[in-house]
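Schema walk-through. Below, the input block comes first and the output block second. Nothing else is stored per chain. Lengths vary across the set, and this one has 310 residues.
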Amino acid sequence: MTFASPWHLLLLFAVPLLFWRRAGESSAPRLLFPAAALAAVVRPSLRRRLVVLQPLLRALAFTVIVLCLARPQQGSDQAIVSARGIDIRLLLDISSSMTRTDLAAATRLDVAVSVIDRFIESRPEDRIGLITFARYPRLVSPLTLDHDALREFLRGVESVAGRSEEDSTGIGVALAAAALRLREDARRTRIVVLLTDGEEREHAIAPQDAADLARAHGIKVYAVAVATHSGVFADELRALAESTGGRGFVASDARSLSAIYERIDLLEKQEIAEARLTEWSDLYPWILWLAALLLLAELPLDLFYLRRAP
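--- output ---
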């Protein structure tokens, strides 16, 4: 408990003055009578005893009023917790090799879309964007909190045609594009989640150079290699991710791919800010009722039962 206006408590020093003044008034005789020795043995009446109660009630009422002026308050601490989401750029390989069905009955792309869809659903506070890539990256969705629209875009993703001009794997260019789009807001945590099933085929930007660009802007990369039998490729992808502070993973089937995205979800939790707020509630209205009751108790005594002759 605290007082909003503690300086009013100085008025409590006036309470003894009330007793002193009242005692002085009581000692001064109002009427003079001849001395009577027998009066000393007479027991004081109830009225005489209640005379002490009157100034006591008045002093208590004054004390309570002073406490009301000081505004006693009771505080309760409350935690204000707010979630501040992070920025996630999803990179999804859509080269023709993603149409293979070695992960499950569905294609690699269908499995990846299903897993990524659940990942998006589990992170409602994050701004998430999607870039697909084969030879060239293509922005499907900018960073957005409209995850329903994002998931619709994701479900509409298709692989490029086999043996077409675009059917290749440009990891470096796609990663560089993601890093450049994420570098704008350095106040937020930013990550790239890259999923690919093929080795780098384009050399316009080396994957490690793109990873260095991401690291320079404080962006972590999580790289997922899907159904690859090349240990060298998986090791390179893992080293690329770890150079940015991220992690590299290898998914051999649908279950392991789902587990990887769940792991990334746990590694990159939302930023939680907690503040303590003290809410103060005034207690003086209740104390004021006490002062009123004390005054009401003292008033009849003063006007009627304990009224004195002048």
